[in-house]
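User: For my dataset I need records formatted as: sequence, then structure tokens, nothing else. Please produce one.
Assistant:
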Amino acid sequence: MPERPRQGFGAAFRGWRARRPFWGGLLLALGGGEILLTEKASLKVVMHIGMQGLAGYLLPGLMVLLGLLILFSPAQRLFYSLTGILFSLGTWITSNLGGFFVGLLLGAVGSCLTFGWLPDQEPRVPRRRRREQARAANRGGPGEEVTAGTGPVPGAGAGEPA
């Protein structure tokens, strides 16, 4: 069996990250973690206590779980992202205004990034490379300039309009 060259950790991680909605799952999990941290704030900072106490811990905990599921099971990303946005918006009521807006925004942005991620998309070509390819395609023969929609018209003389 031929040996293939060993990849470094960075290259292997980039390959793993490219096959899943990494940033969406990470932001959703971080949003849930931030909301859980605000739940542990001192009583002078906490705005909601009481019957909503369990939901105040449950929703951000589920946000963290959904973020991890997005990272490790990207096939179900649509369900996880829709559930994640609902839980993120639910923390507005149950968890100190969604972790003082920070956790709510992280969760909402992460869910939206996950929802919009496409698994089999071609890698993005940088703008510079696209320009170079367009220039190479537009170059004609030597000394001949080719532009879209113009060119020599058969039967037209040197002074005649095309």
